[in-house]
Specification:
heterodimer; A: four-stranded antiparallel sheet; 10 strands; B: alpha+beta; four-stranded antiparallel sheet; 4 strands; elongated
Chain lengths: 252, 301
Amino acid sequence: MIQFFHVSKRFPSGQSALDNVTLEIDRGEFCFLTGASGAGKTTLLKLIFREEIPSAGQILVNRRNVSSIPQRKIPYLRRTIGVVFQDFRLIERKTIFENVSFLPRILGLDASRQKRVAFEALRRVGLSHRMSSFPRQLSGGEKQRVAIARSLINEPEILIADEPTGNLDPDLAQEIVKLFLEIHLRGTTVIFATHDRALIESVGHRVLNLAHGRLVDDRPSRRGSSPGPAAPSGETETGDAGGSPRVGDSPS
Amino acid sequence: MSIFQALVYFVREATTGLVRSLRVSVLAILTIAVSLFLSGALFLASQNLARTVRGWRAEARLVVYFDRASDAERRGELRARIAAGAWTETVAEVSAAEAGRRFERAFPSLAELVQGRGGALPHSLEARLRPPAAGEATSFAAWIEGVRALSGVEMVDADQDWIAQVETLLALVRGLGLALTAILLGASVFTIASVVRLTSFLYRDEIAVMRLVGATEFFIRGPFYVEGILQGLLGGGIAIGALAGLHAFVRQKIATSAIAGLLADRFLGPSQLLLLLLFGALAGWLGAVISLGKESLQPSA
């Protein structure tokens, strides 16, 4: 699903972010990406959704070489990848519904369909009752769940999370991890960047460890290769895990 | 997304952008309004003046004054020669007596200067000429000079002489107007560019999110282009309103001012008003294009 072949990334300032990284992440796999601050986690993630271009090496996502995708095709790549950040990146002046339904809108779905898919995505994260709220009215955990709902709106094949629990207290962090595990259970490939060792150990999936831009450790999952129930104990508040329709990836 | 849906979205986002950075938006709109108003006022004045000059040219006359030594036979020869001129439409001889009567009518208080003094004014010939076509100016001027040089002719008054001077002045005013328009619109474009750049800066985080979820450049840039166009249209609308007000004000003065009549006889036509609006929209769009250069909407690091 995702393949890195001898990928290096050096910024114009001369700083090296990644150095000769080769790795492969299978379809439906859940893997943690860890390492100290500045190890290259964020750069590696940005390379996957073509926020950055490698200085050397090749990256294949779904057998497409993302380094050579023309600029105009990048939006279509990104519609197949959900991205969640530590700082949520919600649009403050828009309601939760508007934040989540942005992609369906640019894909040209009619208003009722937009509402339906946004409701479905928010229901999956347990926030369907907050559609008309604004981000400032939500807690940190709720904001992150909205960001996850937004990333799920198009049923992406890949979900990338860059320190999604970094701004949350441990309880909320566990809640968010549960959500990602549920999403993984439905077949989505998840790459979860964190430096929270305890969190990683509690889940037990594959761990890619970066240090100074190099992949220094690739520890396989203790749970076997196929996705399986991996959520830490405790009830989730995310509603059912039934499938929701993909909103389509036709060009707008 | 259909074009109509996209347009609705662009207009809504552009309006929000205008309101969000209201002060600078108003500044941009006023800048373009002032530019278009001044350009429009110059155009309006020069257009009315040109219309007046065209009228003058259509009624232009050539008055040939005979010298007192010319007898009737010579005056007849001269009349025939002038009547045969390529630009002559009609000729009429004015006798010395008729010239005296006209003078008395035109200047009653000076009538005593000619009363009882037969031959105080010379015989003359009034010729109505058709305006020379483009490219005939040199040959026309040569013909006038030829008439002046004829034996028996004392003096020639050609309206074309001063009309040509007015036309030169008019061309100069038009040239200055065009230069001023270019400078002012250039200033407007850069003001709008600054405003759109500021708005895009305010929205940079949203733009980053839009890129993240897979919005195309068309979708990201559209609202900013529409914002520039809206600013231009609003500026154009204000300029047209101000021009109409100025025109109405000057029209009120026509009865007492000949200049007002020359400059404000008619207002701009619908196509010219539309052109003014389009200029505004074009300046706004250009400002947005300049401000959204290739790199300006890239996410901040």
